[in-house]
Amino acid sequence: MSGPDQQSENAVEQSTAARTPLQGVHVVAIDDDPVALRALETHLSRRGCIVQTSGNGSDGLELIDDSVAVALIDMRMPGLSGLDCLRYIKQYHSSVKVIIVTGSSDVGVAVEAMKKGAFQYVCKPFIPESLSIQVEKAYEAWKAGNENSGLRDVLSMPGVPDDLMFAKSDPDNELLAAVARISQLDSTVLIGGESGTGKTTIARMIHQSGPRSAGSFIAINCASLPRDLIESELFGHARGAFTGAINERIGKAELADGGTLFLDEIGDLPIELQPKLLTFIQDRCIHRVGCNITRPVDVRLVVATHRDLAAMAGKNQFRQDLYYRLNVLSLYLPPLRERSSDLSSIARSIIKSICRRQKRQTLRLSDDAIVHLRSYQWPGNIRELENVLERAIAFTDGDELLPEDLDLKLPPAAVSVRESDTTETPPAYSLAGMTLQEIEAQAILETLEASQGNKARTARMLGISEKSIYNKMKRLGISYPPIRQEH
Amino acid sequence: MNPLIDQKQLMRFAESDRDLISEMAVIFKRSVPGNKARLQHSVAEADPVKLLEISHQLKGQLSYFFCAPLVSLAGELEEMGMRGTVEDAQQVSERLISGLDQLLHELSEITGLQLDIEEE
After folding, report:
1. Does A2 touch chain B (CB under 8 A)?
2. Which of A241-245, A382-386, A401-405, A416-420 has the lowest mean pLDDT?
3. By CA distance, what is B56's nearest residue in A?
4. What is the average pLDDT score of chain A?
5. Cα–Cα distance, A301 to A312 (Å, whole number)
6. 3-state SS class at A262
C-alpha cells in the first residue's frame, strides 16, 4: 500500500478531534454484513465511542444493557431482524436509543421502525459525518432521559431518589432546594466538601436543571492533569504551539460553550495558571495556547474542591482575587460521618440502585448492619460506602446484608462513637470491646434521650420503622419512661 | 473497461484511512466465494426468497465500495426476488459474479494487497 497522505490524515485527525461529545459513549452495532460492521466500528471508535459489534441479532442483544447509549441495528438480518431487536430493546432496555441501518429500498420499513420506537435511521452506505451527528443526537437524548429521570426524582421530593445519595432528611431537602434555586441563576458556583461527598453529582444537577441543560457539561479535574497540560486542556492550543502539538486542539472551555464548565479540585490549580483563569472569568474569552486570536466563550462556571480555599487564600496559596470571583454562590456537602442519621436511608438507596443495575432482587439491610455502618467514620464518604455495599452485595447469597458481609476497615481510631447530628457533644467512651447488641442498645438509649423519649422521632433518627423500635426495645430489654409531648 | 469503484467517494467514506479500506477489502474478499455460491445456487434453484436474501446482502456490502454498476445489478436481482420472477436472473447474476472479480482486482490496485488471486 502506498504511504498515507499526510495532509489527508491531518484532515481526518482535525475533523475528528472536534467530535469529543462521543468520547466514551457506549455503542453496540449489530449487522450481518462484516464489511459494514468494520466500517461502523472504525468510524465510531475514531470519534471516541466504545463500540461492541455483533454479526447477528441474538448475540447482539446479549451486549445490550442500560450502559449502552446507542444501538445501531441493520434492518434485514437472518434470524432476529432489526425490528425484532428493536422490540426487545424497547421492552427490556427502553433507555437505549436505536438507530436503524438500512438499504435504500427499505426506507419504508425504517420509517415503520421509527414509529415503533427507533430513534432514527441511516441508509447504507452511511455517511460518516451524518452518522456521527445522528449518534450524537441519540446520545444526547439518552443522556437527557437518564439525567432527567434522576432529576425528576430529586425535584419530586419527598420521594427518595434511587440513584442519588440523598436521604429524606431536612438538610438534604434544603440542599436540593438550594440546588434547584442556584441552577436557575448564571453565577459561578463553588461546591465544597470532602472527597466522595457527591460534588460532581451536584454540579451535574445544577447544569441539568438549569437553562443551560441543552448545552454540554464539560468537566476537568485540575488535580489529575499534569501541570503543563492543564492550560492546553482548558483553553486548547494551536498547531505547533509546543512539542507534540501536532494538530490544533479545542479546549474544554470552548467545548462547554453554551453549557457548563465544571472545574473539579480547583484548589489544585497551579498558582501560575490562576491569573489565566481569572482573566477568563472576567472577560469570558479564551486564547488557545500559541494563538493570539480571542474567542468569546459563554459558559457557566461551577467549581469544586475538598480544600479550604479561604484558608489557602489567606496563606497566599490560592489567589484571593480568584477566590472572590469563584465564591459567588457556595454549597457545602457534609461528610458522611456527619450524616449518620441519614446513613441507613442513603445505604438503602445505594443498595437498591446496585441491585437494580445487577438485575437482582433488592437486598435488605439488617438493623445490625446499620449499627455496624454507623460505627465507621467513612473517610471516603459516599463513594466508599458505595464500594463497601457493592462488594457486600457481590459476595452475599442471601436476601439480607449482615454486619459480617460489610468489609469495613476499622482502624482503632475510627472505632469511636460517631458524632451524632442530634447530640451536642459526642460521648467520650469507645465502642471497641462492646458487642453489637450493646452498641445497638446504647444507640437506641441515646437517641431516645435526644428525642426526649419520642419513639417515632427516635425511629426516624435511627432510620428504622417505629414498629422496629418497639421490637428492639423489647428484645434488648430497654425501658424508657415516656415523656408527654407539650403542645 | 470503466472502473467500477468511485475512488473519490470511497476515500471520502474512509476519511482517507487506507487501512480501513484494506480491512474492508480483506473482509469482502473472504465473503466473495460464499456469496457467489449462494447467488448461483438461488438462481439454479429458481428460489426467489434466497435470491432476495443474497442479492440484498450483496447490494448493502457493495454499496460500501461505491461501485454503482454492481449495486445496480444486485438491486435488479433483489427486485426479481421480491417480485418472485427469477427467469431473467441467470444473465444478471453472471454479470454480477464477473463484476465481483473485477471489483477484487480494483481493490487490489487500490490497497496494494493481492485480493484477486483465487484461493484453492
Report:
1. yes
2. A416-420
3. A103
4. 80
5. 20
6. strand
Chain B residues with CB under 8 Å of A34 CB are 27, 30-31
Q: Do A2 and B17 touch (CB under 8 A)?
A: no
Q: How many CB pairs under 8 A join A and B?
A: 73
Most confident of A281-285, A380-384, A459-463: A281-285
A40-53 burial: b if 16+ Cβ within 10 Å, else e? bbbbbebbebbbbb
Q: What is the pLDDT of residues A25-34, one digit of tens each?
A: 889 999 999 9
Q: What is the spatial distance between Cα A365 and Cα A352, in angstroms, rounded to a whole number? A: 10
**Rg of the Cα atoms in chain A:** 27
A485 touching chain B per CB within 8 A: no
Contact B24 A39 (CB under 8 A): yes
SS3 state of residue A401: strand
Q: Which of B27, B60, B111 sits opposite A103 (nearest CB)?
A: B60
Residue A173 near chain B (CB below 8 Å): no
Q: CA A122 from chain center: how many Å?
A: 31
Could you give the C-alpha distances from A102 to A26, A105, A154, A466, B52, in angstroms and in order?
Answer: 21, 8, 40, 59, 15
- Three cell numbers, residue A39: 466500517
Residue A51, classed as helix, strand or coil, is strand
Taking an 8 Å cut-off on Cβ atoms, the answer to whether B18 and A1 are in contact is yes
d(CA A64, CA A47): 20
ipTM value, please give it: 0.94
- Residue A53, beta-bridge partner list: A29
